Amino acid sequence: MTEDKNRNNRKELIGFVRSKTGDKSIKVVYEYKTPHPLYKKEIRRKTTVHVHDDKNDSNVGDKVRIMAIRPISKLKRWRVTEVLEKAPTL
Question: Is 18 contained in some domain?
Answer without folding.
Answer: no
